[in-house]
């Protein structure tokens, strides 16, 4: 099965600092991303409905960028990345997400991210 890269972009009223907190702290991650998370140094163990996925945080630029590499990823060039920046025109925060999935799952993966981001917006106030 061919793997494809997915790039998504979302606009938030919340600051990059608030988004960064919701992407890195267990108490915030469980509010929108996963059921449970255990963080040990740069290793994140995420759980969803009893299934666990391990990711290593390989790049961390506070309030700007996070890059995770999944332990089970099929290639070294696959990752989950969050990039945060401010729009110079509107002042809103732009959250860009890069993810990978099988090519026949791209639409489902995008729909899942839309759903997750909807919860993140509720938690961060927009």
Textual characterization of the structure:
The chain is α+β, with helices and mostly antiparallel strands. It has one domain: START domain (Alpha-D-Glucose-1,6-Bisphosphate, Chain A, domain 4, 2-Layer Sandwich). It contains three helices and seven strands. The chain has helices at about 15-25, 25-30, 105-125; strands at about 5-10, 35-40, 45-50, 50-60, 65-70, 80-85, 95-100. The chain has a seven-stranded antiparallel sheet with strand order 1-7-6-5-4-3-2, covered by helices on one side. A hairpin with a 3-residue loop joins β4 and β5 (about 65-70). The radius of gyration is 14 Å and the shape is globular. The mean pLDDT is about 95.
Question: Keywords, please?
Answer:
126 residues; Alpha-D-Glucose-1,6-Bisphosphate, Chain A, domain 4; 7-stranded antiparallel beta sheet
CATH superfamily: START domain
Just give the CATH class.
Answer: Alpha Beta
How many discrete domains?
A: 1
Can you summarize the main beta sheet? 7 strands, antiparallel
CATH architecture: 2-Layer Sandwich
Distance between the termini: 37 Å
Helix content: 25-40%
**Oligomeric state of this protein:** single chain
Side by side, the strands of the main sheet go: 1-7-6-5-4-3-2
What is the CA-based Rg, rounded? 14 Å
Shape: globular
Low-confidence stretches: none
Write down the overall mean pLDDT: 94
Order of helices and strands: EHHEEEEEEH
Count of helical regions: 3
Summarize the structure.
The protein has 126 residues and is α+β, with helices and mostly antiparallel strands. The protein contains 3 helices and 7 strands; from the N terminus they run βααββββββα. The protein has a single domain, classed as Alpha-D-Glucose-1,6-Bisphosphate, Chain A, domain 4.
